[in-house]
Amino acid sequence: MNSTLRQICFYRDSGMFVRDEEAQLLFDHILGLLDHLEAEAEAGVKFSMGEPPSSGSAAYRIYVNEVMLGDNTIYMDNGRVQVVFLNHCVVNYLATREPVFCGNTYATIENIIQRSTLISGTGERERKRFFRALREEVDRRRR
Question: By the number of CB atoms within 10 A of the CB, which of 5, 9, 109, 114 ranks highest?
Fold first, then answer.
């Protein structure tokens, strides 16, 4: 989220938008996205924007760890294969299926999760605090 907000501010401040309203519209859409993500977190399941949660929806878990910052590593396990995607040069990813590396990545992520606070489906106070802080950051940057 912070990276996206910084990019919008950079382009706005550089005069790359034809009208300032375009940047404001992006901030409005981000606030709408945050509303949706918070609704998903509250329900504990994924669902389409503008639609209610439905039975059979995929589980959605958000963990907050104020000490550990994310590094955009993606771990995927579909039951048949494990893959780790590593961010490279900002917009590119490297992928590996190497079993030892994937196992180590999984163990590291699980360790971080154990030291984090679950804010989806439970933890209403922490969830509200988390999303309020994100909205305040959007409002701060839109000025």
Answer: 5
In this prediction the pTM is 0.84
In contact, 40 and 58? CB cutoff 8 Å: no
Residues 6+ apart with CB under 8 A from 48: none
- CA dist 125 and 119 (Å) reads 8
Using one digit for the tens of pLDDT, what is the confidence trace for 36-64?
999 999 999 999 999 999 888 999 999 99
Beta bridge partners of 59: 45
C-beta of residue 34 within 8 angstroms of C-beta of residue 19: no
Largest CA distance in the chain: 51
Per-position DSSP letters for 11-70, written without gaps between them: HHHTT-SSSHHHHHHHHHHHHHHHHHHHHHHHHTB---TTS---TTPPB---EE-SSSPP
Asked if 62 contacts 46 with a C-beta cutoff of 8 angstroms, the reply is no
Over residues 66-89, the pLDDT tens digits come to 886 667 889 999 999 999 999 888
Residue 120 identity: S
